[in-house]
Amino acid sequence: MPVLVASDLDRTLIYSAAALALTMPDARAPRLLCVEVHESKPLSYMTETAAGLLTDLADAAVFVPTTTRTRKQYLRINLPGPTPKYAICANGGHLLVDGVSDPAWHASVLARLADECASLAEVQEHLLTAADPVWVRKHRVADDLFAYLVVERELLPEDWVKELAVWAENRGWTVSLQGRKIYAVPKPLTKSAAVREVVRRTGADLTVAAGDSLLDADLLLAADKGWRPNHGELADSGWTAPDITSLPERGVLAGERILREFLRAAGERGQAGSARGSAPAGEVGAR
Questions:
Q1: How far is CA 274 from CA 1, 57, 268, in A?
Q2: Which end of the chain has the least Cβ crowding within 10 Å, N or C?
Q3: Residue 149 scores a pLDDT above 60
Q4: Half-sphere exposure (CA, 13 Å, Cβ side) for 241?
């Protein structure tokens, strides 16, 4: 039975220059590999060591990138190793199989959203009227599923996100602040639901996960074992749960540590499986 590794990407496995958290002396900084270019500029990185670990992980487990990014944003990432067969985009709104969105899965998501929460149009209208152009730089809609704002953090009023979260809660939506982005996402739109579908298709009997933001909490809770770095919304709020390990590392080194933990978990399951498989053979000659 395969091990399934479901991992958030941004600020979990890959990092922008601003999120690297290279606090060591320059001469001791890790070598970095650029894994995303956008508009002809390097955008996201991981350490070269992490790149090797991710390549190794493809031989040990079913690796499923699990991101809030849109399909277009995800597909411009060039991760080391073989291209994952499955990927989850738009916070669970799209399940990619060999790079193509599964239409049946997407249709089921749209039906659930129509039944269980306020419409995207209502949330968009509220964001347009409630957000101040002084600190909002962009209004965006992601794959016609959820909305987000790109803001100037230093100008953002301290309580505005909390007020938005209360408004959204009453309409079946949730709010997440990640770097310079404020996400408004329908509660029924979850990474965990899409991961459970991949588990069903692959027959995995162990699921491990990692993530750093509020939108990753359901993913971590759905996994058998999980890890979060020492940065992001979950760390800032002190969030924890059974079978979730809070790592001490921050920034790009946390991504490296997470991949080591994934490989360790997959290796331990492989050793346990080998032991179980060899037990009957050892008993054959017993008298």
A1: 11, 18, 10
A2: C
A3: yes
A4: 16
